[in-house]
Amino acid sequence: xxxxxxxxxxxxxxxxxxxxxxxxxxxxxxxxxxxxxxxxxxxxxxxxxxxxxxxxxxxxxxxxxxxxxxxxxxxxxxxxxxxxxxxxxxxxxxxxxxxxxxxxxxxxxxxxxxxxxxxxxxxxxxxxxxxxxxxxxxxxxxxxxxxxxxxxxxxxxxxxxxxxxxxxxxxxxxxxxxxxxxxxxxxxxxxxxxxxxxxxxxxxxxxxxxxxxxxxxxxxxxxxxxxxxxxxxxxxxxxxxxxxxxxxxxxxxxxxxxxxxxxxxxxxxxxxxxxxxxxxxxxxxxxxxxxxxxxxxxxxxxxxxxxxxxxxxxxxxxxxxxxxxxxxxxxxxxxxxxxxxxxxxxxxxxxxxxxxxxxxxxxxxxx
Length: 367
Description:
- By secondary structure, the protein is of the alpha+beta class.
- The protein has a single domain (5-357), classed as Beta-lactamase (3-Layer(aba) Sandwich), CATH 3.40.710.
- It has helices spanning 5-8, 13-17, 45-56, 93-107, 138-142, 151-159, 164-169, 185-199, 203-215, 240-251, 264-270, 336-354; strands at residues 23-24, 61-68, 71-77, 85-88, 221-222, 236-238, 255-256, 259-260, 275-276, 286-290, 295-299, 302-309, 313-318, 323-329.
- Strands 3-2-14-13-12-11-10-9 form an eight-stranded antiparallel sheet, sandwiched between helices.
- Strand 13 and strand 14 (323-329) form a beta hairpin.
- Helix 4 packs parallel to helix 8.
- It is globular, with a radius of gyration of 19 Å.
- The N and C termini lie far apart (39 Å).
């Protein structure tokens, strides 16, 4: 199987757009996780501590956060960081963007995912060179079935340009829309532009109003293109605790504290497989597939829903265990193989240390 790292984000993008930096969130802006001992939530504390120690042996992990049944049961921060430090979450941002599309559909800002993307971009129609783009729908962009070539092929053409949208629409598709699959950050950037056009708000403002504030979390920064559109599917700055909070929202079918923040039907659709990889084993994950900007698979035969970002940014959702694990890692470098190794290493820590911490016969507490 081709390295998942090569699908996540073009490596040099990290240094082209902005250097990785740490931003500190005022503690009052972030949701305060209720805390509980590992044992009270069915985890072995010694085994969990071994997971934190293993993460500390790496040269790159910034944070590892473990929650179960809605409680923070353990966290560890490394390399001078703490719980209030926000890092770029790279392509984990795509899963947040997915949630915004579910919200926009519910709010009536979008009518249907079958709408062609060009309907939102009339001023740019003259730049389209491939007539097949008229058939690219929002659904195609959300499921990586648009026909845009992969990140390693065309992303540089777009981000080196002075107008990302124009450069994207000038590309030639490599397959008919809907007929195949290719991971494309160019496509997800178009989703951000389209959301801005459809809602009349920037993607960041829309996220704050309808996702982040209702969820009680913060976004400290987000990269933008030369026209000011927020980078669809990359470079949000969010704390590891808030990443886990977002994962917890999805484990609860989009509803928290009595408020339906993301429609339950969208949570179900977006975390259902739209494409299954052949030979889909990578790191400690088997049976890998893709939904609507979410990764899907199994870890130790346990169903997994996952948000994944270049270099080791993760939200691991284990629905049958009622558990969320988030991880943040250093990723400001240009080395495909190193990024792939870091990502695999994080999956191994979760599979070999955190999952075994769940006590035999423990019962999941549901709220």
